[in-house]
Amino acid sequence: MEKTVKKTVKKKMEIKEVIVVEGKDDISRVKKAVKAEIIATGGFSMPERVMEQIEGAAKRKGIIILTDPDYPGEYIRREVNRRVKDAKHAFIPKEEAIRKDNVGVENASSESIIEALKKARCQTQVSTETFTKKDLMDGRLIGFPGAVERRDQMGKILGLGYGNAKQFLNRLNHYGVTREEWREALIKIQGTTRNCDR
Q: Are the C-beta atoms of 69 and 58 separated by less than 8 Å?
């Protein structure tokens, strides 16, 4: 008697926007995670023709910027955002995008990529000033032992990535984070960062 083996085929999440990454390895990795059109910037030396391609994609379908969680990735993100004002931003936590000493989207798991894309947010051009330095102090995200770790946890939960205090406050006010999201994230990190406060 022969047994019939059925394979369970998991359907990939489809992304309607075009995803902007840094390189060819990033394209391969993201395509394993989701079904989407993807453009690679080619790193720091992004040719003007690539920028024009990204601008065209933004007009046609919208874009999500998914760059490496490092300085070059942030630089590329800022350059693309300077030219495409209504881009969405997705952030992969650094520890989820690192293999040996190499930091990059190409090292992230499919789950990390999908989670980052689900949390993608548009950056508003005008700061809402919903959050202040006092909020960061009250949340023990600055000026307290363990503040760096707490900011990192908040960034993961809110889909903002890691940033120093100034960058984090800027992202809170430019990526449409609500007071309710803020409160829920603070509650979530209370139990996970207690040891950092000692």
A: no
Fold of 14-122: Dna Topoisomerase Vi A Subunit; Chain: A, domain 2 (3.40.1360)
Q: Does the pTM of the predicted model rise above 0.85?
A: no
CA distance 147 to 135: 13
Q: CB-based burial of residue 26 (10 Å sphere; 0-12 exposed, 13-18 middle, 19+ buried)?
A: buried
Q: What is the pLDDT of residues 20-51, one digit of tens each?
A: 999 999 999 999 999 999 999 998 889 999 99
Lookup: tokens for 146:
């363990």
Length of the chain equals 198
Average of per-residue pLDDT values in the chain: 89
Residue 105 CA neighbour count, 13 Å, CB half: 32
CATH 3.40.1360.10 residue ranges for the chain: 14-122
Phi-psi group of 190: left, alpha or beta (phi > 0 → left; psi -120 to 50 → alpha; rest → beta): alpha
pLDDT bin (cut points 50, 70, 90) of residue 193 is very low
Element holding 112 (H helix, E strand): helix 110-118
Tokens representing 64 are 């999500």
DSSP state of 124: P
pLDDT digits 0-9 by tens, 148-166: 999 999 999 999 988 899 9
Helix H or strand E encompassing 102:
strand 102-103
